[in-house]
Amino acid sequence: MTLPIPAIDLRDGNVVRLFKGDYTRQTTFDVEPLDLATRYAREGATWLHVVDLDGARSGRFENLPVVTRLVAAGALDVQAGGGVRDEEGVRRLLDTGVGRVVVGSIAIREPATVAGWIDRLGPERIVLALDTRWRDGAWTLPSAGWTADEARTLDELLPFYREAGARHLLCTDIDRDGTMTGPNLSLYEHIAHVAPGFQVQASGGVRSLADIEALVARRLDGVILGRALLQGEFTLRDALRTAEVAC
After folding, report:
1. What does UniProt list as catalytic (predicted)?
2. What is the pTM of this model?
3. Mapped to the 3 state alphabet, what secondary structure does the chain carry?
4. Which residue is catalytic, options 9, 52, 54, 177?
5. Which structural domains are found in the chain, ordered by start?
6. Helix 111-121 vs helix 154-163: crossing angle, to nearest 10
7. Which of 34, 85, 143, 172 is positioned for an S-S bond with 105, CB 3.0–4.6 A?
8. What local confidence, expressed as pLDDT, does residue 200 receive?
9. What is each CA distance from 242 to 1, 4, 148, 237, in whole angstroms?
10. Are 236 and 225 in contact (CB under 8 A)?
């Protein structure tokens, strides 16, 4: 079953959403992160996706106290990322009780390093965040909170990580993120063709229950829900019900 996973993006301890990853186009929501997580748990969530947007740019996990409170509440399993640059950072998050650590920039820049983490810590503890943007005929992989261009492409790294034993892959079409224009279904079809076998979490652009049905039809493992829930386009309870019926 494709699992709807609510997301909380953090900046200065606040719940925010960016438009296409642009830090100058931020919407701040008047809700405390813990209150929002509690609401999602009450509606049936089992996992919560947390992104430290400050850390994604700085390379330091700057909202760790907030994440620690979310984990300590015990209502949800948490996967968290943003600013993880070394194994000490991974272990620091795991020590808080985070179930899975999401790694992005370093997974693009130093794939051999992250392959070592997967080997030592196990594939269930690491989620690869290979967020991508279509440029010049290829799926490129910006890093550092999507602010820096990298030479490697999605098609280069997917087979490498499959051979390294990676299991969880989160992939966002950056040009859809926060836009409410629908997910890029062709991207996830492409991933399944290039490197089948990953448990893929789709992210970016989901605006309706029909979008969730379309992602379920592609047999994805999860779908990250951010702005649509925060703006009340549908409830998490409705998303979970839709995914269950469509599977």
Report:
1. 9, 131
2. 0.95
3. CCEEEEEEEEECCEEEEEECCEEEEEEEECCCHHHHHHHHHHCCCCEEEEEEHHHHHHCCCCCHHHHHHHHHCCCCEEEEECCCCCHHHHHHHHHHCCCEEEECHHHHHCHHHHHHHHHHHCHHHEEEECCEEEECCEEECCECCCCECCCCEHHHHHHHHHHCCCCEEEEEEHHHCCCCCCCCHHHHHHHHHHCCCCEEEEECCCCCHHHHHHHHHCCCCEEEECHHHHCCCCCHHHHHHHHHHHC
4. 9
5. 3-246 (3.20.20.70)
6. 30
7. 143
8. 98
9. 11, 9, 37, 9
10. yes
- Residue burial 154-170, b: 16+ Cβ < 10 Å; e: rest: bbebbeebbebebbbbb
Lookup result for tokens 């992104």:
51
Q: Which of 52, 131, 177, 211 is catalytic?
A: 131
Question: Which tokens belong to 192?
Answer: 């399944």
Are 184 and 213 contacting, i.e. CB atoms less than 8 angstroms apart? no
User: How is residue 238 written in tokens?
Assistant: 């409705």
Q: In terms of Cα–Cα distance, which of 83, 204, 8 is closest to 16? A: 8
